[in-house]
């Protein structure tokens, strides 16, 4: 299937409208093959504009700056101008096409810029592949029947969580003897595959529990491996890399792990005295208990939100079985993890718990990314219908919550998000939550006691924020830019005047 429009036009302050012919072929639900044709008249106009800019500033031997004959300038700078014209035409036409009504792009155009040639005669034609949002009808989202989990934090629940919190935060006392379950240990780790070292970490602290989890593997029976060993001793084991690991070569492979015990510490949580409270930054046991209660409430609030979201997206994406290209899944995997981290941070979840959530997601990264993409497409469609878009106040509030959890300032958090390209993930997070809130408001809600929440808090695993086989790229590199390549040995083009 292909669509054609010979009159794609746009305006800028500096140039007349650019006329293009665009053909779009549907390759799959989320892929388009696009052929762009720039008429010869437009090529010549861009060429004239380039020379008009160069001639008044060109410096050639035997002539004062700007006084060389135009034909001589055109001959001297022919190759450079051709590259400049090609670059300008590609960038301008791409902007017009991707911002038009043909599709909603979710990735960069994929093509080899260097292989594109500007012909001496005839029209300028190039083509590219691009990933797009699928076309579909907005599902019926009003009046859904939802089960809203509820629960009460009792004193026994608070006491259990209090002991876990103390074991997590108190440094404990050094242990000269053998390691026991529940001890806090500092480890060095080294991983190899077929005799080749693939990664390592230094001095990561974990609590000795049944399992030790990484972003792409886990050590079952971790407590059995380490208990009885002393500081300075090492032990080895074999573990299997997840099928969703970033490194495709290592997916599903067994790797050898060697751990060295750097330090063992033991926390006694039977008594909470002034010294322990001071180490944790609390003035009284009541203040500590209030902190733990708030942490529990925040964690359940997140669980409740996620339960409602899960029910909603299951209903709304029931028919959303679009086939997603593997390249799209790979490029979006880390963005989805970033969005998840931001959501957890703004919900007040502790960093230790965040690591656990993220490691679980990384273990099933491909499947969770596919599900998240389908959910996002549907929720974004509803947002467009309702004309929902975050305001600056929404961004400020979200960044403020993340800053509070991260013990940082909103200004620093915003700068970090902008520098790392995560503002787009933050925007998607806000928009999706706005849609979920609208759906919940229009839903038929029935409260249901959550009997599993506190069982899930009895952790039998420890997490390290580390991926053995490497992590997914944060942001893909741009495939092209607006600067034409330098031609070895060619005359240098005069620099353009800087804009005010």
Description:
- With 500 residues, the protein is of the alpha+beta class.
- The chain is 41% helix and 19% strand.
- It is globular, with a radius of gyration of 29 Å.
- The two termini are 46 Å apart.
- Mean pLDDT is 86; it is low at 474-478 and 485-490.
Write a brief structural summary.
The chain is α+β, with helices and mostly antiparallel strands and 500 residues long. The protein has helices at 40-54, 70-76, 78-98, 155-169, 222-226, 274-280, 285-316, 326-346, 351-363, 365-386, 392-406, 410-419, 423-441, 453-457; strands at 2-8, 20-28, 31-38, 124-131, 145-150, 173-174, 184-193, 196-207, 211-213, 218-220, 234-240, 254-266, 444-449, 461-463.
Topology at a glance:
Elements: E1 2-8, E2 20-28, E3 31-38, H1 40-54, H2 70-76, H3 78-98, E4 124-131, E5 145-150, H4 155-169, E6 173-174, E7 184-193, E8 196-207, E9 211-213, E10 218-220, H5 222-226, E11 234-240, E12 254-266, H6 274-280, H7 285-316, H8 326-346, H9 351-363, H10 365-386, H11 392-406, H12 410-419, H13 423-441, E13 444-449, H14 453-457, E14 461-463
Helix pairs in contact: 1-3, 4-7, 8-9, 8-10, 8-13, 10-13, 11-12
List key phrases describing it.
500 residues, alpha+beta, 19% strand
């Amino acid at each position: 299937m292909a669509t054609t429009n010979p009159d794609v036009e746009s305006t800028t302050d500096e140039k007349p409208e650019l006329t293009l012919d665009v053909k779009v072929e549907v390759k799959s639900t989320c892929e388009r093959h696009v052929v762009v044709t720039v008429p010869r008249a437009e090529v010549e106009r861009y060429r004239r504009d380039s020379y008009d800019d160069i001639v008044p500033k060109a410096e050639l031997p035997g002539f004062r700056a700007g006084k060389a004959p135009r034909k001589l300038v055109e001959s001297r700078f022919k190759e450079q101008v051709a590259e400049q014209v090609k670059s300008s035409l590609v960038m301008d036409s791409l902007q017009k096409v991707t911002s038009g009504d043909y599709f909603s792009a979710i990735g960069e155009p994929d093509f080899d810029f260097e292989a594109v040639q500007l012909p001496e005669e005839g029209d300028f034609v190039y083509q590219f592949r691009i990933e797009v949002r699928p076309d579909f009808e907005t599902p019926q989202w009003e009046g859904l029947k939802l089960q809203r989990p509820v629960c009460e934090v009792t004193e026994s629940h608070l006491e259990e969580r209090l002991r876990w919190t103390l074991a997590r935060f108190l440094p404990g006392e050094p242990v000269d003897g053998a390691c026991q379950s529940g001890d806090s240990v500092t480890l060095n780790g080294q991983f190899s595959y077929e005799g080749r070292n693939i990664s390592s970490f230094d001095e990561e602290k974990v609590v000795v529990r049944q399992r030790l989890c990484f972003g792409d593997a886990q050590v079952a029976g971790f407590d059995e491996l380490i208990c009885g060993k002393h500081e300075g001793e090492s032990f080895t084991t074999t573990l299997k890399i997840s099928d969703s690991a970033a490194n495709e070569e290592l997916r599903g492979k067994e790797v050898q792990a060697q751990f060295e015990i750097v330090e063992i510490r033991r926390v006694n949580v039977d008594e909470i005295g002034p010294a322990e409270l001071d180490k944790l930054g609390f003035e009284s046991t009541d203040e500590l208990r209030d902190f733990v209660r708030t942490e529990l409430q925040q964690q359940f609030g997140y669980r409740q939100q996620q339960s409602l979201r899960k029910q909603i997206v299951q209903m709304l994406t029931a028919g959303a079985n679009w086939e997603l290209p593997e390249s799209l899944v790979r490029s979006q995997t880390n963005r989805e993890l970033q969005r998840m981290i931001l959501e957890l941070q703004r919900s007040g979840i502790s960093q230790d718990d965040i690591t656990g959530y993220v490691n679980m997601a990384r273990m099933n990264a491909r499947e969770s990314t596919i599900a998240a993409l389908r959910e996002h497409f549907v929720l974004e469609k509803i947002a467009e219908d309702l004309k929902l878009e975050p305001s600056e106040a929404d961004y400020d509030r979200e960044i403020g919550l993340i800053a509070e959890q991260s013990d940082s300032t909103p200004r620093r958090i915003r700068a970090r998000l902008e520098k790392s390209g995560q503002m787009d993930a933050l925007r998607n997070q806000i928009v999706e939550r706005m849609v979920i809130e609208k759906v919940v408001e229009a839903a038929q809600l029935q409260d249901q006691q959550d009997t599993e929440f506190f069982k899930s808090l009895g952790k039998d695993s420890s997490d390290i924020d580390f991926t053995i086989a490497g992590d997914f790229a944060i942001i893909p590199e741009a495939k092209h830019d607006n600067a034409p390549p330098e031609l070895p040995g060619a005359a240098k083009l005069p620099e353009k005047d800087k804009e005010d």
